[in-house]
Amino acid sequence: MRIGLYPGTFDPITLGHIDIIRRAATLVDKLVIGVAINRDKGPLFDLEERVAMITAECAELAAQTGIEVDVHPFENLLIDCARDVGAQMIVRGLRAVADFEYEYQMVGMNRQLDDSIETVFLMAEAQHQAIASKLVKEIARLNGDVSKFVTPRVNKALLARFG
C-alpha cells in the first residue's frame, strides 16, 4: 500500500491545499493529512477546529476517489510523523520559487534523517498559487471577501471568528 503524508498547519485549509490533496490522492492508496501542532505560530483555529475542517473537506474527496484519507495531528519531527503513519512519501505543495528554497533545505535534512522516505513536490494550479493561509486570515480579519480562496464551510468559520 502506497501511503503519502501531506503535512501542514492548515490554519485554515484553503483551496490551494485542497488542490494539492486532490492531486496527491492520485499518487497513493492512502493519504494522511498531517496537521502540525505548532504553538509558535499561534494558530487562529485550534487543533480540533482545524482537524474538523480538514476532515469535512476531505470526506467528499475520499468518497469520490475511493482512497483512504486520514487526518493525523502531530507535534514531532516531520520524518518521525512519516514513520509513525507508515508513509513512504511526503507530499509538499509549492506555490513559488521562494517556497522551493525552504523545501529544498527540508528535503536535504529529512534525507539525512531517513533516506527511505521520498519527498514529492506538487505545484499548485495557477489559480491557487497566490493563496496562503496567512493572507486569507489577514483579508478576513479586515472584512475582505475570501470566498475565492476557501470553501463555503471554511469561509463561514472565518466569518464566525472575525464577526
Describe what this molecule looks like in 3D:
It is a single chain. Helix content is 45%, strand content 20%. With 163 residues, it is an alpha/beta fold.
Question: Could you provide a short overview of the structure?
Answer:
By secondary structure, the chain is an alpha/beta fold. 45% of the residues lie in helices and 20% in strands.
Query: How large, in whole angstroms, is the Cα Rg?
Result: 15 Å
What class do helices, strands and sheet pairing give?
alpha/beta
Distance between the termini: 44 Å
Strand order of the largest sheet: 3-2-1-4-5
Question: Helical percent range?
Answer: 40-55%
Largest sheet: 5 strands, parallel
Low-confidence stretches: none
> How much of the sequence is in beta strands?
15-25%
Number of helices, counting only DSSP H or I runs of 4 residues or more:
6
Coarse shape:
globular
Mean pLDDT comes to: 93
Q: Order of SSEs, N→C? A: EHEHEHEHEHH
The total of beta strands comes to 5
Defining traits:
about 160 residues, alpha/beta, five-stranded parallel beta sheet, 6 helices, 5 strands, about 45% helix
